[in-house]
Amino acid sequence: EFVILNGNIINRSEASIDIEDRGYQFGDGVYEVIRVYNGKMFTAQEHLERILLSAKKIGMEITFTVEEMKTLLAELIQKNNVQLGTIYMQFSRGVSPRNHPFPVPAVPQSFVAYTKEIVRPLANLENGVKAILKDDIRWLLCDIKSLNLLGNIMAKQEAVAAGCYEAIQHRGDIVTEGSSSNISIIKDGKMHTHPADNLILNGITRRKIIEVCEKGSIPYVEAAFTLADLENADEVFLSSTTSEITPIVEIDGKQVGNGMPGPVTKKIQVLFDKEIETECGS
Ligand code: PLP
User: Fold this and answer.
1) Which value does ipTM take for this structure?
2) Does the reported pTM lie above 0.80?
3) Which of 34, 141, 182 should be mutated for ligand 1, with most atoms under 8 A from CB?
4) Could you give the dihedral angle defined by the CA atoms of residues 218, 222, 223 and 224, in that order, rounded to the nearest 10 degrees?
5) Cα 216 to averaged position of ligand 1 atoms, centre (Å)
6) Which domains, from first to last, does the chain contain?
7) Is the separation of the CB atoms in 211 and 43 below 8 Å?
8) Pocket-forming residues, ligand 1, beta carbon under 6 Å
9) Closest atom of ligand 1 to CA, residue 241
10) Which atom of ligand 1 is nearest to the CA of 177?
11) Bridge pairing between strands 166-171 and 129-135
12) Given 40, 57, 145, 190, which residue is catalytic?
């Protein structure tokens, strides 16, 4: 199995990271997860542009271009012969004696990427999943895909401990996003999703959903919605690169709508599948 370390494709067994890597010690870095369908990356352009933007927002200038990263990642997929799976990639601010301020002069960033084979979550897509509500205790720069995920993993763990798939986070009355997904609701045929501000990660799947809503003439609005809106929603779904568009059929033990995935969510799923087919083939 091959991995990328600092721009080189090497054997995983030969890859190592220094104990004073700032990603390891501070979570000082950014990451992406890209889906691979049919041996091809889906929405790679958007993910790679987002990692450059995330890096910029933490004062880190990634030295690779989108095209350079695409070429390297495509080579990794080919070498590992991945048909259906994901690529995980991260950049940290590099290796330097532990000290909070950024290293001066700057040191080379640590760039790691590897592949994983995973199937599509077909049962969840079809039947939906359960969620809990959870106070959003995270910081105020949730638009950055940062390696710091403590708030997210603590929320997820609470969901899992409750026998659920996801934690729907809220700041006061406003629903923000899941612990590793965006949350959208359908009310009277219209899709509502939180605007892309500092309180959520602007999901690539979320953006694709907006695109297919436009193509499929599904009305939508990018506007914050409340816990009451969530409770009164006809349909609720989560979206992410790995979970795609997963219906949420129960929240804190209460049924959403009639407790089954709804028609608008299903329509969005079909349109989303078409996007995958168009970009990656079937
Ligand atoms: N929000 C959070 C906090 C996430 O971690 C993720 C992805 O894992 C998303 C939203 C969805 O983003 P994307 O659709 O780009 O995977």
Assistant:
1) 0.99
2) yes
3) 182
4) 100
5) 23
6) 2-117 (3.30.470.10), 122-280 (3.20.10.10)
7) no
8) 152, 177, 180-182, 201, 203-206, 239-241
9) 16
10) 1
11) parallel
12) 145
Q: Which two tokens stand for residue 170?
A: 């809220």
Number of H helices, E strands in the chain: 8, 15
Per DSSP, the three-state class of 13 is: helix
Specify the amino acid at residue 45.
Answer: Q
- Written as six digits, the tokens of 36 are 């691979």
Q: By C-alpha distance, which of 223, 50, 198 is closest to 138?
A: 198
Contacts of 64 (CB under 8 A, 6+ apart): 7, 72, 111
Helices marked H in the chain: 22-26, 44-57, 66-80, 122-127, 150-161, 204-215, 227-232, 263-280
97 is written with which tokens?
């004696």
pLDDT tens across the length of the chain (282 residues): 999 999 999 999 999 999 999 999 999 999 999 999 999 999 999 999 999 999 999 999 999 999 999 999 999 999 999 999 999 999 999 999 999 999 999 999 999 999 999 999 999 999 999 999 999 999 999 999 999 999 999 999 999 999 999 999 999 999 999 999 999 999 999 999 999 999 999 999 999 999 999 999 999 999 999 999 999 999 999 999 999 999 999 999 999 999 999 999 999 999 999 999 999 997
Active site residue 145: yes
Phi/psi-derived region of residue 38, left when phi > 0, alpha when psi is between -120 and 50, beta in every other case: left
